[in-house]
Write a structure and sequence with these properties.
By secondary structure, this protein is α+β, with helices and mostly antiparallel strands. It folds into two domains: 32 residues, no CATH class; 114 residues, Ribosomal Protein S8, Chain: A, domain 1 (2-Layer Sandwich). It has three helices and six strands; from the N terminus they run βββαβαβαβ. A four-stranded mixed β-sheet has the order 3-4-6-5, with helices on one face. The longest helix is centred in the middle third of the chain and has 18 residues. The protein is globular, with a radius of gyration of 16 Å. The C terminus is likely disordered.
Amino acid sequence: MNHSFECPQCGNPRGMLDDCRQCGSEQLPIAHSDTVVLNLKFDSPSAEEALDRLTTALRRAFELGIKAIILIHGYGASGEGGKIKWAVHDALENNYFSDRVDEYYFGEKTPFGSDAYHALLRRRAGLKAHLKYFKDGNAGMTILLLGSQSRNT
């Protein structure tokens, strides 16, 4: 299986956030995993647009029972971090997503073998396959562990 979601009506692969391109279904997609990868930097949005996408994705992830998001925000060409990365970091550190995100791990602070890496694996062993991208720490990614499914929306 090469896709994470499928349309409940026609069975075709589809994204987490969009309607089905094949049949136009607006029903929630069927998730094949409780961990998804979300590329916030795809098609070069502004930092504000990227945060809006993340907000929408967190709402949808809650509806679908997703437990973890591997967030790709990029590092930026400046060598000091890009606007999307800093906007995401700032939002997380200031509890902007605290109603949905229980824990977050910045890639640069989660290199292979570190205490943070092992704590993350203890919390969500299923993330091991995704953590191969964190060998030396990956400043362009952040892992979000989502909140309890019993919370009110």
